[in-house]
């Protein structure tokens, strides 16, 4: 429910819908690259002008909208920003309140070692660890779900020691991706996908055989 999200974020980030409005958080799993992105690039090669991943997600979510011709469906993407330069929604908070992934933050550590350093939080999925991404929200403004029960996200990094290790790796060593394997995972990004996301955005077109 939109109300679960609005209850835990600052008013500036509130979604402008009634509390009982139905919303879905969209995640991409490790297989997205091979099952969605590569076929999309091959099919839409001439139309890709921006970011191939963003355009691929947009394409697939527009197809989801088409499945509900009698419903109003609003889509928000993780990369969209407001005129104030703030994101349209806080993706990790949305994933947490929906029960999709646990958003580990500094407040989840009782005795943290970081002093005055800024520490960013990170979502971990019980099946994919850090090998996934939050891509957007699907909102159904005309559907009110009064009796929907809120699922708790799975607390899969449950010890103080592991949480410190996770936040340490994510904040200070994120490039090596070790934080993604803080738990045992069922699936990881393919080697091709790792290379793609490790490459500066401007050079990614070449990896997919595209001219920018």
TrEMBL record:
Ranges in coiled-coil conformation:
none
Q: Which GO terms describe its biological process?
A: cobalamin metabolic process
What is the name listed in the Swiss-Prot or TrEMBL entry for this protein? Cyanocobalamin reductase / alkylcobalamin dealkylase
- InterPro entries documented for this protein: MMACHC
What's the chief localization of this chain?
cytoplasm
Q: Which UniProt keywords apply?
A: Cobalamin, Cobalt, Cytoplasm, FAD, Flavoprotein, FMN, NADP, Oxidoreductase
The EC number(s) given in the record are 1.16.1.6, 2.5.1.151
Choose one Gene Ontology CC annotation of this protein and give it: cytoplasm
What cofactor does this chain's UniProt record say it requires? FAD; FMN
Which reaction is catalysed here? apo-[alkylcobalamin reductase] + adenosylcob(III)alamin + glutathione = S-adenosylglutathione + cob(I)alamin-[alkylcobalamin reductase] + H(+); apo-[alkylcobalamin reductase] + methylcob(III)alamin + glutathione = S-methyl glutathione + cob(I)alamin-[alkylcobalamin reductase] + H(+); 2 cob(II)alamin-[cyanocobalamin reductase] + 2 hydrogen cyanide + NADP(+) = 2 cyanocob(III)alamin + 2 apo-[cyanocobalamin reductase] + NADPH + H(+); apo-[alkylcobalamin reductase] + an R-cob(III)alamin + glutathione = cob(I)alamin-[alkylcobalamin reductase] + an S-substituted glutathione + H(+)
GO MF entries: cobalamin binding; cyanocobalamin reductase (cyanide-eliminating) (NADP+) activity; demethylase activity; FAD binding
A Pfam match = MMACHC
Q: Where in the cell is it found?
A: Cytoplasm
Similarity section: Belongs to the MMACHC family.
């Amino acid at each position: 429910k939109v109300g679960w999200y609005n209850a835990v974020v600052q008013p500036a980030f509130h979604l402008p819908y009634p509390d009982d409005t139905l919303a879905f958080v969209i995640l991409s799993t490790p297989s997205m690259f091979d099952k969605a992105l590569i076929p999309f690039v091959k099919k839409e090669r001439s139309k890709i002008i921006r970011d191939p991943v963003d355009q691929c997600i947009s394409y697939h979510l527009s197809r989801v909208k088409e499945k509900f011709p009698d419903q109003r469906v609003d889509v928000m993407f993780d990369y969209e920003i407001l005129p104030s330069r703030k994101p349209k929604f806080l993706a990790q908070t949305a994933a947490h309140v929906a029960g999709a992934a646990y958003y580990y933050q500094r407040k989840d550590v009782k005795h943290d070692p970081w002093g005055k350093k800024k520490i960013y939080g990170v979502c971990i999925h019980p099946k994919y660890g850090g090998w996934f991404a939050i891509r957007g929200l699907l909102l159904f403004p005309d559907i009110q779900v009064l009796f929907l029960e809120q699922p708790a996200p799975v607390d899969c990094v449950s010890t103080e020691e592991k949480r410190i290790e996770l936040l340490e790796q994510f904040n200070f060593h994120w490039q090596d991706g070790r934080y993604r394997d803080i738990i045992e995972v069922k699936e990881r990004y393919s080697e091709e996908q790792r290379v793609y996301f490790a490459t500066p955005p401007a050079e990614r077109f070449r990896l997919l055989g595209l001219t920018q």
